[in-house]
TrEMBL record:
<dbReference type="Pfam" id="PF02616">
    <property type="entry name" value="SMC_ScpA"/>
</dbReference>
<dbReference type="GO" id="GO:0007059">
    <property type="term" value="P:chromosome segregation"/>
</dbReference>
<protein>
    <recommendedName>
        <fullName>Segregation and condensation protein A</fullName>
    </recommendedName>
</protein>
<dbReference type="InterPro" id="IPR003768">
    <property type="entry name" value="ScpA"/>
</dbReference>
<keyword id="KW-0159">Chromosome partition</keyword>
Length: 252
């Protein structure tokens, strides 16, 4: 059709059928019908023949002014079939081009030349600019480094136990010798926050035992701790073990 510029309606269905039968007989005689190539040729012939028959059917439809939507759909179907035939032809040509390129590439063998023997042991010139003094300085720096493995400090996770009874004895000693101390002074002389808490608990126990008194002259003013007993009684006071120091019983 493309070479002779024939109209699709000029092709007889009988001619297409005869050509298909002759083609299949030729493949059978050459024993190619059972091969992959023979099946591809048969399927390709069927695709072209079916497309031509669809085109001819669409072209044989009545021509004239299109007033019905069905006629427009038939024309669109005809154009679609013709475009499908052209697309098939383009794919066929591209596949042949790929086959030629793959066949030509299969005959090429890459060459991997090796380096000649006389050049294998030749090394590039060494440009060494470091002086003995520089090397000695680098060595001294390397051996002077601290090679101790790094460790993670866990001291803050295991706090030291602070005894309330010991802090109570400290407060009793201060009251016995001075008679009056400021609570701010007790907090300022504490080493850690836990010591401040222990001294506060010790003051509560002493106040409960009537061994000290708390005075505050003005609201929100300085808080003073005053001895409520004589110095001898304070030194000899024995309140026993603090409840805050006793560990709770653990159940197994």
């Amino acid at each position: 059709m493309a070479k002779r510029r024939l109209d699709i309606t000029d092709i007889a269905l009988a001619e297409v059928t005869d050509e298909f039968l002759a083609f299949t007989n030729q493949l059978r005689d050459t024993d190619h019908a059972s091969t992959t190539e023979g099946l591809e040729q048969l399927s390709s012939f069927l695709v072209v023949a079916a497309t031509l028959l669809d085109l001819k059917t669409a072209r044989l439809l009545p021509q004239g002014q299109m007033e019905d939507e069905l006629d427009l759909e038939l024309l669109e179907a005809r154009d679609l079939l013709f475009a499908r035939l052209l697309q098939y032809r383009a794919y066929k040509q591209v596949s042949l081009l790929f086959r030629e390129q793959m066949t030509a590439a299969g005959m090429r063998i890459p060459r991997t030349p090796e380096l000649e023997e006389k050049f294998r042991d030749i090394l590039p010139p060494l440009e060494f600019t470091a002086t003995p003094e520089v090397i000695a300085a680098l060595y001294a720096t390397a051996i002077s480094r601290d090679h101790t493995p790094p460790t993670v400090a866990v001291d803050h996770l295991h706090l030291e136990h602070v005894s309330v009874a010991e802090q109570r004895s400290v407060i009793l000693g201060e009251l016995a010798s001075r008679g009056r101390i400021d609570f701010a002074e007790l907090a300022a002389s504490a080493e850690t926050t836990l010591v401040v808490v222990a001294r506060f608990l010790a003051l509560l126990e002493l106040f409960k035992a009537h061994l000290c008194d708390l005075q505050q002259d003005t609201p929100l003013g300085p808080l003073s701790v005053v001895a409520a007993a004589s110095g001898e009684e304070l030194r000899s006071a024995d309140l026993g073990e603090s409840e805050q120091d006793a560990e709770p019983d653990r159940e197994d």
